[in-house]
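Backbone description:
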Amino acid sequence: MRGLDNENMNSFVKFACGLALAAAAAAVPAQAQNLPPEVEAALARARVPRDAVSFLVLDADGKSAPRLSHRASVAVNPASLMKLVTTYAALDILGPAFTWNTPVYTDGILRDGILAGNVYIKGQGDPKLVVERLWLMVRRLRGLGIQRIGGDIVLDRSAFESVAQDPSVFDGEPLRPYNAAPDALLLNFKAVVMSFVPDRATGLAQIHTEPPLAGVRMQASVSLNPGDCADYRGALRADFSDPAHIRFAGGYPASCGERVWPMAYADPRSYAARAVLGLWQSVGGQLGGQVREGRVPAELRAAFDNPSPALAEMVRDINKHSNNVMAQQLFLTLSLQQRGTGTLDASREILSRWWRERIGGADTPVLDNGSGLSRQERISAQALGRMLQIAWASPVMPELLSSLPVVGVDGTLRRSRARAAGAAHLKTGSLRDVSGVAGFVHGSSGKRYVLVAIANHPMPGVASAARPAIDALIDWVARDK
């Protein structure tokens, strides 16, 4: 075995995993295996039918038949579990140290603090160009000695295809940050972050907003009101109908203390221009022209670069907090790196080819945007389990494992009711009709298991009602005595 290189080792692991799964399928009919009594009881209490759930428990090393397999070969909607496919593929294809770069260009002559020309910012898909990094970018521009830009600030978004997306279509929640569309120049997730700080002496709650958006008026304060904090957002009676004027007709409950409300900006197409100009002005910069879209002239050389954190850190943000737009940025980056432009069709093709070469099997997942925020994406528990076994044996296993929420500790599983706190690293997935987890569980015997549990049901509330049964399954796997 020491003579195998990584590629041959991956092929060997795929072969071994395939044999184990095939043997299990031959030995145990998918619908016939009994579930653990505590899982069966939890399903019965919640009135969730057995045919609404898919369960699979495997040895992580792929050396044994499945410990449990129930409807594992049925392709289902995985919701955010699809991020496991996108992030593992990206780690494998791009490498954990991969970074994005956002170069800044200038043209014209700089004299006495005035640039007689334009500034260009070229987006290349950075998933986490947040307000702090954007502020550093404009500070660095000022550090070049530019006080006034005589021409325009030009935003180049050409690295990605334009992904038409109505943020209200998916679930009718257009102001939820998770509904933001991908963008080659994605700034601060196109979100406005409002902080409410109560001041009992004045009877007001001060409102601080980041980033400053040029041309947008925002109230500086709202009145403090009595009452509990159960629905402070409703109590504020926010009015976002005019993107240029964010208003509050209500008040802020004093009992809330300080709260932060992140909100998707109501006019996402203008967000980047408003944020860039607002931050440029906040550091004392002046602009003679306008902020507009365009392309960087081919002959220009970058004045400076803005590298992102490494992919390993990005993957942690994507999986720990189930960040949809970051996952979509990563998905489009696959084709940007290989084809020169990021498109959904090309990224689907690249990831499907990677799956056939690295994972194998006939059940290639149905891909949409790579984030799981989709009604079309499909994968079986068997296919996802096989991928996780191969990931366990891969060089990037530590980066993938550390990106997953830890049960009862952090991320989307911080408030998990499973008793196996700290014993499992699991990605979560949930939509209106989907609930699931997938990842790795550390058994009390010292063995590591792959666990995939997914509930799909068209009736509202049924899939989410399966969560106690999924928690019971996590605990059952952890108690592998």
